[in-house]
Amino acid sequence: MPTTVRQVIDALEQRYPPAIAADWDAIGLVSGSPDNTVTSIVLAVDPVLAVVQEAIDCGAEMIITHHPLFLHGVHSVAATTARGVVVEELIRNGISLYAAHTNADHARPGVSDALAAALGVVELQPIDPLASDPHLGTGRKGRLPTPMSLRDFAEQIVAALPSTSAGIKVAGEPEAMIETVGVCGGAGDSLLPFVADLDVYVTSDLRHHRAQDHLADSACALIDVPHWAGEWPWLPVAAAQLAADLTAGGASVELRVSAVVTDPWNWHTGG
Ligand SMILES: [Zn+2]
Q1: How far is the CA of 147 from the centre of ligand 1 (A)?
Q2: Would you list the domain boundaries of the chain?
Q3: Which of 197, 185, 181 is nearest to 144 (CA)?
Q4: N or C: which end of the chain has fewer CB within 10 A?
Q5: What is the pLDDT of residue 1?
Q6: Contact between residue 98 and residue 9 where contact means Cβ atoms under 8 Å apart
Q7: Per residue in 59-116, pLDDT tens?
Q8: 111 C-alpha vs ligand 1 centroid, how far in Å?
Q9: What local confidence, expressed as pLDDT, does residue 38 receive?
Q10: What is each CA distance from 106 to 79, 136, 138, 154, 185, in whole angstroms?
Q11: Would you say domain 5-104+232-255 falls under CATH 3.40.1390.30?
């Protein structure tokens, strides 16, 4: 029996239940039919044209992304916008698109568990637990098995994450010793109030005033990693889980983690 999009969605939603997504989110099937047949799937952070092209090139019938293609009201999918072109190419090539966003953030293991594991952080628990289930939630905090300097931890992050042109930014004393660590894949400045008692907080897209106020009020250092790189470690974890779940269900699908760097910052200058 060929595997269908519906079987893939059922497996995904066991791991990442839609009910635990944030109420503002737009997760689930974006294009395609649940009845379509799937032999090959690409997993990526962003539903952009380069990823759709990668799926076309490798013959995949389905793309699973972390970020939704549409998050707000849509009144046109005409090919006059980049997202409209993505829709047109998905449909023209018979490719189903599915997004697992905050449901994959909140789940265990989820996006921030994968980031924390990549950085060597253990004994993880949510930074901001869900009221409905405190085992789940946003961000993860834990500790390093062996304390190290902030400088060494930053170098460990560079080695652990996929390489991007932007590099990582650090705020804190380079020789300060780090043991307790908070991480949040994606833009995690909303968690700053919860990390003051940790040694360092790793997230993306930290803004000037939020970072400055945090550093003035607490000894918790900050590390800002590229948004794409911080969420990418979830892809191989999700692919391995999905492969195992589908195999256990008698299905067989080839899973491929996207190699396309979709970080919007493609070069930097000034040191
Ligand atoms: Zn994100």
Answers
A1: 28
A2: 5-104+232-255, 108-224
A3: 181
A4: C
A5: 81
A6: yes
A7: 999 999 999 999 999 999 999 999 999 999 999 999 999 999 999 999 999 999 999 9
A8: 9
A9: 98
A10: 34, 5, 5, 25, 11
A11: yes
Buried-exposed string 228-257: b where 16+ CB fall within 10 A, e elsewhere: bbbbbbbbebbbebbbebbeeeebebebbb
Model pLDDT, residue 129: 98
Question: Any idea which architecture 108-224 has in CATH?
Answer: 3-Layer(aba) Sandwich (3.40)
Tokens (6 digits) for 208: 């000037």
Instruction: To the nearest 10°, report the CA torsion of 156, 159, 162, 163.
Output: 110
- C-alpha distance from residue 228 to each of 18, 81, 165, 256 (Å): 23, 22, 11, 17
CA of 67 to the centre of ligand 1 (A): 6
Q: What is the whole-number distance in angstroms between the Cα of residue 265 and the centre of ligand 1?
A: 15
Q: What is the pLDDT at residue 271?
A: 74
Please choose, from the candidates 141, 126, 173, the residue with its C-alpha nearest in 3D space to the C-alpha of residue 154. 173
In the block, residue with structure tokens 């008692």: 197
How close is the Cα of 26 to the center of ligand 1, in Å? 13
**Whole-model pTM?**
0.97
DSSP state of 211: H
